[in-house]
Amino acid sequence: MSIRWTYAFLDRPAGHFGRALDFWSAVTDTRPSERQGEDDEFATLVPVDPGVDACGKVQAVTDGRGGAHLDLAVDDVPGLVAAAVRLGATAVAAHQGWAVLRSPAGQLFCAVPWRGEAVRPPVVRGTRLDQVCLDVPPSAFAGEVAFWSGLLEGWESRPGSRPEFHVLEPPSGLPVRVLLQRLDEERPPAAHVDLACADIGATRAWHERLGATHVADHPQWTVLRDPAGGVYCLTGRDPETGGLP
Question: Does the pTM of the predicted model rise above 0.90?
Answer without folding.
Answer: yes
